[in-house]
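Reply to dn_fold:

You asked what the input looked like. This is it:
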Amino acid sequence: MTVLLTIVLAVQMLAALGMIGLILVQHGKGADMGAAFGSGSSGSLFGASGSANFLSRTTAVLAGVFFACTLALAYFGNLRPADSGSVLERAGAPAVAPAASGAAAIPGTAAPVAAVPASAALPPATPASGAAQIPTK
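and this is what came back:
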């Protein structure tokens, strides 16, 4: 799966770079006014109007490839296994003992702190709402 994601990401980056280059090469609508007075691109590689069609069609194709790669990356990025839980449940992290304070924080002055079960160490988490979200000093 990671090889497929790497390939799709590489194609997306190449399409993005190609679009940037093609968009910078194209001329704007105001450039056609200069062509009417003799400074046109009739001597260019694609002819008088051939470059506009070729460059705009190539840009549209690259934009479609970029869009398809973006959708594919979004789809594959959101795939999760059926037994997925939270990150902490999958990691199996042990409970952390609370930090010592006062004289117990100085090494050698007090007995080590016994590990407290995770359920007793922290109060139940409730989401903050309203004014409780504003940090205080």
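The longest helix spans residues 50-77.
Hope that clears it up.
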